[in-house]
Amino acid sequence: MPLDIVDDVNDDDAMPTVVQSCRIEKDHARLLSRQARRRHLEVSTLSSLYLREKSLEEEFPGIGFRDAAAGREAYLPGQRVAVWEVMDVYREARTIGRTADHFGWPDYLVKCALAYAREFPDEIAAQREAEVGG
Amino acid sequence: MIRLLADANLSRKFVRACRRLDKKFPLIHLSDWMDGKHRVSEDPVLLAVLREQGLILVSFDRRTMAVHAGELTRAGSGHAGVILFRRSVSPTDYGKQSRLLFEFWRETADEEWADRIEYLPR
């Protein structure tokens, strides 16, 4: 089957996907396998998840990802607060300074959350919906 | 004696508002507890540490927190209790949050709290 047909199939999804192959050291492959088994995932699924999240963490410093009730969730590592929770406060506080003051954080942490939320508003709304329902 | 721990999604201003209602209100913020070292802890770890310390977690409602608490109860290890503010309560309305918790705690402080999850307002 030509690869372009694989692409056509995947283009039916909300987010089109492409096949990306890469080489990794055997030790790391074993580690990845072990982690995939622990999480009851296919190695390819976990690899894809790691690639996605690591690339986003590089692009949006200060943002990490964690397991939540309905899947993975963007949050601020070291603060235990999800990006959607920062947005909830920001909507009321209306300024970065007041939002930072609410959490007792430096402004840049709020800016990190806002930058991510502006780039992925639907994802953040879905994460909020999953946690609190609307 | 401290009995309640405010999670990171609550403001220290909420803790101060509680103290204005009662100078000895037994609540501490996560950032001020154990030098803030559990600010990095995931829910199950935090709940397990709080169980050992006999502290009840006060947090804003997140389905994930209730799920983790329920899992600890089913696993038999249990938790020391969780109080969750419903999202109908504004995250910046520290006065309302403090009054809700203060009144609730006045009625329930002497009750059994192990493995209990309560929502405010009730």
Please, could you describe this protein's structure?
The complex is a heterodimer of chains A (134) and B (122). Chain A has helices at residues 3-10, 26-38, 43-59, 83-93, 96-103, 107-119, 121-132, and strands spanning 64-68, 71-76, 81-82. Chain A has two domains: 1-59; 61-134. Helices cover 61% and strands 10% of the residues of chain A. The model of chain A is unreliable at 1-11 (pLDDT under 50). In chain A, helix 2 packs across helix 3 (43-59), helix 4 crosses helix 5 (96-103) and helix 5 crosses helix 6. Chain A has a three-stranded antiparallel β-sheet. In chain B, strand 1, helix 1 (12-21) and strand 2 (27-29) form a beta-alpha-beta unit. Chain B has one domain (4-120): Rossmann fold. By secondary structure, chain B is an alpha/beta fold. Chain B is built from four helices and five strands, in the order E-H-E-H-E-H-E-H-E. Chain B has a five-stranded parallel β-sheet, with helices on both faces. The longest helix of chain B is centred in the C-terminal third of the chain and has 15 residues, at 94-108. The mean pLDDT of chain B is 96.
